[in-house]
Write a structure and sequence with these properties.
The protein is an all-alpha fold. Helix content is 62%, strand content 0%. The protein is built from one helix and no strands. The longest helix is centred in the middle third of the chain and has 38 residues. The radius of gyration is 26 Å and the shape is rod-shaped. It starts with 8 loop residues before the first helix and ends in a 15-residue tail after the last helix.
């Protein structure tokens, strides 16, 4: 590519790279918060297992 056809590093490329970096940081923060929330809910459910709409049978029944 000729120099005049290339996008400017300071005004085009770096702002886009910064935008993508910020997007990645926001995604990581959202995913880690969701994982922590899911882990907290999983911990809440460990102490009280429930079975809804099922009956337990042994091999003899």
């Amino acid at each position: 590519m000729r120099r005049r056809d290339r996008p400017d590093l300071a005004t085009v490329i770096l702002p886009e790279l910064n935008r993508l970096r910020n997007l990645g940081h926001a995604y990581e923060a959202r995913m880690s918060a969701a994982a922590a929330d899911a882990a907290a809910h999983a911990q809440d459910n460990v102490g009280s297992p429930t079975v809804v709409g099922a009956s337990w049978r042994t091999a003899e029944s």
